[in-house]
Amino acid sequence: MEIIAWFIAALVLAGLELAVGEFTLLMLGGGALAASGTALLGAPLWAQVLVFSLVSLALLFFVKPFLRRRMQVPLALDTSPAALVGHAAEVIEPVTAKTGQVRLDGSIWSAAAADPHASYRAGEHVTVVRIDGPTAIVWKED
Which CATH number does the domain housing residue 112 bear? Predict the structure, then answer.
C-alpha cells in the first residue's frame, strides 16, 4: 500500500509542478518516486522517509540549479545598429569630426570622430561609442 501512496504523491507533485514551474515540486516528486521504489523493495517506513528526504535534497541542491540554468530563455539576438556600440573598428579612410570611413563588423560605415578636434589615420583602430543614423561615431583611447 505504501508503494501506491508514494507513487501517487510523486504524480501529484509532478502535476502541481506544471502550475508552479520552478522545479521544486518536481524534485520532491523525484524523491517520492525513489521512496516508492524503496517501498517496492520492502524497506520499512523509516527507510522510505529517509530515502525520500535524501533524494529530494540531492535533487534540490544539485539537479535544480542545473535545470534552471538550462531552461533560462536566451537573450534575443540584437541585429540593430545599436548592438555595434562598443565594438572595435578599423579606419579605412581618415576620420575627422565630420567625415571618414571605418570597417565595422565586416562592413564599411561612414564615420565621424566623437571628439571634434581629433582625427584618425587609415589603419588605426577605434571604438564605436554610438550610432547616429548611418554614421558610426568613434573614439580612440590614447
Answer: 2.40.50.140
Can you tell me the mean pLDDT for 2-18?
91
Q: Please state, as a whole number, how many other Cβ atoms lie within 10 Å of the Cβ of residue 46.
A: 8
Are the CB atoms for 87 and 105 separated by under 8 Å?
yes
pLDDT in tens, 130-141: 999 999 999 987
Specify whether 50 is located in the same domain as 100: no
Give the count of domains, the chain: 2
**Across the chain, which distance is largest between two alpha carbons, in Å?**
85
pLDDT at res. 30: 95
* Residue 113 lies inside a defined structural domain of this protein: yes
Q: How far apart are CA 58 and CA 35, in angstroms?
A: 14
